[in-house]
């Protein structure tokens, strides 16, 4: 469960004010002074909270990425599922206020420099997942790690765009089902439950990454 602090609330007020101005008069035409006035803060306070107008647009990304780093630094029984849960954490964040997320999406689509920064930001999620898998599964093939990270990120973005481009609420279950498909394609989905016995007979799909086979055998033995 996430905890919202007064500082988070204050930043949200600034973000909301800025996005409303960007939507009504354009990103380039909006000044920092106008944003500060609309949010009820001073110019100096604005710059203590944000580096510039771009940072207001991407404030959520920075906060969510830090939250994911903390989440992935904890121990997880299943690294593949941990990445899927990290994707769901991001989605739930934007699903909590889809209208704000849609306003941000519209602004980003209209400004080339913001689109470029968004591409870099998306890559930061992908790199975070890739690096986590390599730490959590020593010996994993680098191509497997980067491919899984890229596919989870792509599936997440596809479902998120459905939410941002439309007016309907796309439930978390839609993304969960898509992530389950990714796990199945990589043959790293949940193992079937069997009897608790002294003899362990393991059967794995031929395509399952060797690092995942090793992890599952270690867990059983």
Summarize the structure.
The protein has helices spanning 6-25, 32-39, 43-49, 53-57, 59-73, 79-95, 98-110, 112-136, 142-165, 172-185, 210-220. The chain is mainly alpha-helical.
| Integer count of domains | 2
Measured by DSSP, the beta-strand proportion falls in under 5%
Overall body shape: elongated
- Poorly predicted sequence stretches spanning 5 or more consecutive residues: 1-6
Q: If classified by CATH, what would the architecture of the largest domain be?
A: Orthogonal Bundle
Question: How many strands, what sense, and barrel or not for the largest sheet?
Answer: none
DNA-binding region: 31-50
Organism: Microbacterium ginsengisoli
GO molecular function: DNA-binding transcription factor activity; transcription cis-regulatory region binding
Pfam family, one: TetR_N
What does this structure look like?
This protein is mainly α. It has two domains: 56 residues, Arc Repressor Mutant, subunit A (Orthogonal Bundle); 156 residues, Orthogonal Bundle (Tetracycline Repressor, domain 2). It has eleven helices and no strands. The longest helix has 25 residues. The N terminus is likely disordered. This is HTH-type transcriptional regulator EthR.
């Amino acid at each position: 469960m996430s905890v919202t602090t007064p500082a988070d609330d204050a930043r949200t007020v600034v973000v909301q004010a800025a996005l409303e101005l960007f939507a009504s008069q354009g990103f380039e035409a909006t000044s920092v002074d106008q944003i500060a006035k609309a949010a009820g803060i001073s110019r100096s306070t604005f710059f203590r909270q944000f580096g510039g107008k771009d940072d207001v647009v991407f404030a959520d990304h920075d906060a969510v990425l830090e939250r994911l780093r903390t989440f992935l630094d904890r121990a997880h029984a299943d690294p593949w599922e941990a990445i899927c849960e990290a994707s769901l954490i991001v989605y739930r964040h934007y699903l909590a206020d889809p209208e704000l997320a849609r306003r941000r999406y519209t602004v980003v689509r209209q400004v080339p420099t913001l689109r470029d920064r968004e591409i870099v930001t998306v890559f930061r999620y992908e790199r975070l997942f890739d690096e986590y898998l390599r730490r959590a599964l020593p010996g994993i093939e680098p191509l497997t790690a980067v491919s899984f990270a890229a596919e989870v990120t792509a599936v997440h973005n596809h479902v998120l765009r459905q939410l941002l481009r439309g007016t309907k609420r796309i439930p978390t279950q839609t993304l969960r089902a898509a992530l389950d498909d990714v796990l199945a394609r990589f043959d790293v989905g949940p193992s079937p439950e069997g009897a608790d016995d002294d003899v362990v007979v393991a059967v794995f799909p031929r395509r399952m990454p060797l690092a995942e086979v090793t992890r599952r055998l270690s867990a059983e033995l």
